[in-house]
Amino acid sequence: DQYVRDGIRLAVGMGRKSALAGLWWGGGKGVIAYSSDDDIVGEKRKEMLLAYGEFLTSLRGCYVAAEDAGIHVEDIDIVYSRSRYVTCISPELGGSGNPSVPTALGIACGMEGALDACNMGTLEGKSVAIQGVGNVGDPLITFLLERNVSSIVASEYNPTRLKQMQEKYSDYPNVAIIATGEDPNAILYEDVDIVSPCAYGGILNETTVPRIKAKIVCGAANNQLLNPKTDYGMTEKNIIYCPDFVVNRMGIVTCANEHAGRAGSPMEDPLIAKHFGREDSNSVFNIIQTVIKNAKYDKVSTAQAADQMANKLASELHPIFGHRSQDIIKSLIKDKWAN
Questions:
Q1: What's the rounded Cα separation, in Å, for the pair 97 and 100?
Q2: CB 303 within 8 Å of CB 243
Q3: Predicted pLDDT at 36
Q4: Sheet bearing 127-131, strands edge to edge
Q5: Minimal CA–CA distance to 118: which of 197, 193, 195?
Q6: In angstroms, rounded to a whole number, what is the distance separating the alpha carbons of residues 164 and 148?
Q7: Distance (Å, rounded) from C-alpha 68 to C-alpha 103?
Q8: How far apart are CA 161 and CA 135, in angstroms?
Q9: Residue partners of 93: CB distance under 8 A and separation at least 6
Q10: At 127, phi and psi to the nearest 5?
């Protein structure tokens, strides 16, 4: 049941990301269930991924998979050998590869948009705390340094990764990479301008929010609100929460545009780069500003404002392939796919 609940919630988030990003993609999420104690490596892992590829093919294209937590580009390439309904394959095979770097830049753009909307200036001189220095947290540090933040403190629970990141940023006196302590959410309580959850979901709840001192919460982790129906008092505390599906969209943006070919790297391609700018109405910067303004005008939380915007946009039919996924699903039912 937990896998199903998580999958459905993540699928809703993907649909909302697509809608707010101006993409004609719906929402879906694939879940591969296995115990964390399982040794899924080598041939065993390959067999699992091949089976998943065959499963995707059987769905006839109503769902297109991509890289996500626990899955890497090399895994996606294996899945691709059994199904064309997959994205984020390696550049060597014509794909866009790991979308983590564009995702990190999108988070930085979200921070800039939130700061600007609150008349707090730019990222220059700001202090940031990051939870998790993984595939997104690491490049996010680089983008923040390029924008001249005053200080960065980031926590990491994986000992090997922790050592790697400490060595990588050892020459930066304004960057501290620390080990995650007994309370994995302690990093959220740092006295900084912005906290950025980039590890796991459910970290914004009745226990953590009262201890947050930052004025802005903006990170890459999915499903940051433990209960999506409440922001746990952040609005009352004048904390600006940037809903994750608004600012961490660049994974789905990169993957969704693979079919259109590549015009240079993802950071250079106009189809991708427009999301980092200020001119396109659907850019990360502009959308988070609209969410914040709507929330203030309607006297609701930013999470509610973003949900309302996304739900409205998601209700618009694809101009060419409206209800295509429903047609495919009906055909699967008719042909007794589940049997």
A1: 9
A2: yes
A3: 57
A4: 175-179, 151-156, 127-131, 194-197, 216-217, 240-241
A5: 193
A6: 23
A7: 12
A8: 10
A9: 77, 80
A10: -105, 140
Closest CA to 86 of 57, 66, 59, 60: 66
> What's residue 35's pLDDT?
63
Catalytic (active site) residue 29: yes
Which residues contact residue 301 at a Cβ distance below 8 angstroms, ignoring those fewer than 6 apart?
230, 231, 234, 235, 241, 295
Dihedral sign, CA of 46, 56, 248, 263?
positive
> What are the two backbone dihedrals, phi and then psi, of residue 77, each rounded to the nearest 5 degrees?
-60, -35
Cα separation, 98 vs 337, in Å, equals: 32
Q: Give the per-residue pLDDT at 39.
A: 66
d(Cα 31, Cα 50) in Å, to the nearest integer? 15
Low pLDDT (below 70) residues in the chain: 35-39
Angle among Cα 164, 109, 21 to the nearest 5 degrees reads 115
In order of 51, 52, 59, 123, 327, the CA distances from 335 in angstroms are 21, 20, 11, 55, 12
Amino acid, single-letter form, for residue 301: S
Report DSSP letters for 199-212, one per residue: S-S--BSTTTGGG-
Of 104, 113, 110, 117, the C-alpha closest to 145 is 104
pLDDT tens column, 46-56? 999 999 999 99
**3-state SS class at 176:** strand
Tens-digit pLDDT profile for residues 35-78: 654 567 888 899 999 999 999 999 999 999 988 777 888 999 99
Could you say which of 17, 29, 126, 215 is catalytic?
A: 29
| Predicted TM-score of the model (pTM) | 0.89
> DSSP for 144-156?
HHHTT-SEEEEEE
* Cβ-contact 40, 34 below 8 angstroms: yes
Q: Which of 179, 326, 280, 223 is nearest to 14 (CA)?
A: 223
Q: Report the alpha-carbon distance of residue 110 to residue 116 in Å, rounded.
A: 10
